[in-house]
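Lecture 7 notes: from sequence to structure.
We start with the chain below.
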Amino acid sequence: MTSKPSVFSLVLLLAAITATASPAAHDVTAAAKPEHISATESSCPAAGHERPTRDTRRDESYVGWRRLIPTRLTVQFAGGMGMFSAGIGWEYGRHGQWATDLFAGFIPASAIGRTYPTTTAKQSYTPWSIRCCRERLSVEPLTCGMYINSVIADEFWLREPSRYPKGYYGFSTKLRAHLFVGQSYRFHLRGGGVLRDISLFWEMNTCDLYLISRITNRYMDFGDYVGLSVGIGLHLFGGR
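Predicted structure tokens for the same chain:
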């Protein structure tokens, strides 16, 4: 009778030892497998891992509602939108080749007798950019697009007033549609601050009324229907 309990007790003892040793052995095996070591726990970077570029960091932070934040500030002289205009803009597209700007400007009293405020919506396209000077400068040999300009004043109208015979003017004096082509030179700043780049640009432009006048009057000089404008842009985080 005493041998049976002894054998049974021995079996229970062996089972307990086996159950206790198995998790430990499993832990040792798991710890020995390299795939369980995360990259963040390793003190050495993985092979082929590169530090994120400035554009990569921008893409990671400039998402969601933050895309509504303007990415550039621009000041422009002339161009059919007032003597001086200042505005905010957004650069977008895979390579930042598209840009939309909203300007507020003014026509001085010295030009037409009194000062008039102006507003402009501008759409730009830059098909390519050439980097040089050790990546510190980008030359954008072609920028093009269009913009709509409006003068804020009661003297200017969208529809022809009734005091004129129908079709007397045939166009709006309040809105002008412009086309432009030009170039830009963009200086890339070091560091990761808010101000990323500074650009200088020039543009040649004309408007719908000038084009119609040129078509009907072939004796107009080039300078009579094509204007020149210059400006500076401050490119903030999120820009290309």
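Points to note: DSSP finds five helices and nine strands in the chain. The domain at 66-236 is CATH 2.40.160.20 (Porin).
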